[in-house]
Amino acid sequence: RDMEIITIVTDGRVTHGDSMGNTYSVPAGDVQVMSAGTGMVHSEYNNEDSTLKLFQIWITPRTKGLAPRYEQKSFGGVKKSKIELLVSGNEAEEVESGALLINQDAYVSRIVLEEGREVEYALKHPLNGIYVFVVMGKARVAGTDLTDRDALGIIDAKEVLISATTPAEVLIFEVPMM
Asked: What is the per-residue pLDDT across 140-167, written as a single tens digit (0 to 9) for each?
């Protein structure tokens, strides 16, 4: 009830079922969002004989009591050295970028960098902070060295420099700091 739930599959396939009648298989490369709204029951499980790796992020919505909804999208091939917006709380930006929409001023992006490449992430909302998570590889984030499965939370910044010290995949979670 009243949660924005984001699932990012990085390896394998997760099977999703919910009380709205949705039953889907979510493969690596796909992202799923659910707005639990007035309430729903859901489950995710590994129905395969292979390893499953995923991230599931729960974010408090900006408006409570909305109707539940489900959406899933394949983001296809990886765009190297480019910030790829996966989830957005801004409907106009969601339409423009193809990101999935959630009910909060929050954003989830993916960056895949080759060794030696860098990008600067500019925050989309002035009251947000960010949580940078290294899915794989090694990266320097705001001057701090991170490796596989390391993360760094940053507040009071307008932009953050991310550079790869080896090939790296990074997820950026920009969320309200209420």
From this structure: 999 999 999 999 999 999 999 999 999 9
Give the separation between CA 122 and CA 114, rounded to whole angstroms: 20
Q: Which residues are registered as beta bridge partners of 118? A: 163
Structural contact between residues 34 and 101, judged by C-beta atoms closer than 8 angstroms: no
Integer Cα distance of 165 and 147 in angstroms:
9
Structure token pair of residue 54: 């995923």
> Residue 61: which H helix or E strand, with range?
none
Give the SS3 label for residue 96. Answer: helix
Check if the beta carbon of residue 104 is closer than 8 Å to that of residue 61.
yes
Mean pLDDT of 21-42: 92
Instruction: Give 81-130 pLDDT, tens digit per residue.
Output: 889 999 999 887 766 778 999 999 999 999 999 999 999 999 998 899 99
Contact 154, 132 (CB under 8 A): yes
Burial of residue 139, with CB atoms counted within 10 A of its CB: 0-12 exposed, 13-18 middle, 19 or more buried: buried
Spatial separation of the C-alpha atoms in residues 3 and 68, rounded to whole Å: 10
Pair of tokens at residue 178: 């209420």
Q: 3-class DSSP state for residue 42? A: strand
Q: Is the pTM of this model over 0.85?
A: yes
